[in-house]
Write a structure and sequence with these properties.
This protein is of the alpha/beta class. The chain is built from ten helices and 15 strands. The strands form four sheets. A five-stranded antiparallel beta sheet has the order 9-3-5-6-10. Strands 13-12-11-14-15 form a five-stranded parallel beta sheet, with helices on both faces.
Length: 331
């Protein structure tokens, strides 16, 4: 006889779906820092549509969008969920998962109960005309990031996904290893190879901010694999050495500079200091490379603190490619 709720650490028999589950969720009345806003609650297991799958979560990846969701800034995620007909009184965080398929909708053909999968974070309306025409789903009007723009994220015993999100888990990876890189890896790949002609070519200089973190560490490896030269920006010597082990040609410690953020007006007495700091940072890139070569691509995700400098040091005709905005949104 099945149970209505399994405690954390208990695994139901494959294919047995309880009525309720534990989930780490936020609610609009407690938006704030993640350690207080994200709380364990028992809620009903979501019902599936014909093209959905229910995955028992074995491991979930942590991303900065968990922080944004908890804070309700810059977007109240529960209001976004209304667009997709989802609940608006709570939000389950988490955009990465590995696990086992426990149930599928009536029209699902690509996965079946018992499959071991990783979950990618892209969702869209399956009847979206843009997608139906064979165009990039990531640019569709109905595109959303699962676990951020949507309600049913991965920080739960079960997660509800569109079946196409389920990809085979590599057997040689642990559950944790399989869950970690999907969102950041896909984002980094798209940033570096998704905007031709600005894609990484052999010999290209690519400046990578936050090169020891989730996005940056994957970007460094992708650049190196393509024959590019990744210059890592980090906050310590230890992190710089880690980035070089991943394939960066060298690193810059951002703590050696203090000009960050939106520059002052050109006629402000503070302009000279900002301009001098930006020039010194550009020279640091040349020093790493051993030649006066500026970045053809700048991989930026801190946002407010870094975008002005990214633009300043980029080569003529280069691309500054941006996601996130972990340091703020004013540039």
């Amino acid at each position: 006889m099945g149970k209505d709720l399994y405690e954390l650490g208990e695994l139901p028999p494959i294919g047995e779906v309880p009525a309720q589950m534990h989930a780490q969720l936020v609610r609009p009345d407690r938006y704030g820092e993640p350690e207080k806003a994200i709380q364990d609650e028992v809620i009903d297991v979501p019902e599936l549509g014909p093209h959905d799958a229910l995955v028992l979560v074995m491991a979930a990846g942590v991303n900065f969008n968990n922080v944004w969701a908890a804070r309700g800034v810059p977007v109240d995620v529960t209001k976004t969920q209304a667009r997709w007909g989802e609940p608006t009184d709570f939000h389950i965080v988490g955009s990465d998962a590995s696990g086992v398929v426990y149930a599928v909708g009536d029209e699902v053909t690509n996965v079946r109960v018992g499959d071991r999968v990783v979950v990618h974070a892209g969702q869209w309306n399956l009847d979206d005309p843009w997608v139906a025409a064979g165009k990039d789903p990531g640019l569709a009007g109905s595109f959303r990031v699962w676990g951020y723009d949507t309600c049913w994220g991965s920080f739960a015993q079960f997660c509800k996904v569109q079946a196409h999100q389920c990809l085979p888990k590599a057997g040689f990876l642990t559950w944790e290893e399989a869950a970690a890189p999907t969102l950041t890896g896909a984002t980094a790949y798209r940033m570096l190879f998704g905007w031709p002609p600005h894609t990484v070519e052999p010999g290209d200089v690519v400046l990578v901010w936050g090169a020891s973190g989730g996005l940056g560490s994957l970007a460094v490896q992708l650049v190196a694999n393509a024959g590019g030269r990744a210059v890592a920006v980090v906050s310590s010597e230890e992190k710089g050495q880690y980035a070089t082990q991943l394939g960066a040609v060298g690193y810059i410690n951002r703590k050696d500079f203090s000009h960050w953020g939106v520059p002052p007006s050109w006629d402000s007495p503070d302009w000279k200091d900002w301009f001098g700091g930006a020039k010194a940072f550009g020279k640091a890139i040349w020093d790493v490379l051993g030649e006066k070569a500026s970045p053809r691509i700048v991989f930026d995700h801190p946002g407010q603190d870094t975008v002005p400098t990214s633009i300043f040091v980029a080569d003529r005709g280069a691309m500054v490619v941006i996601c996130a905005g972990t340091s703020g949104f004013d540039t």
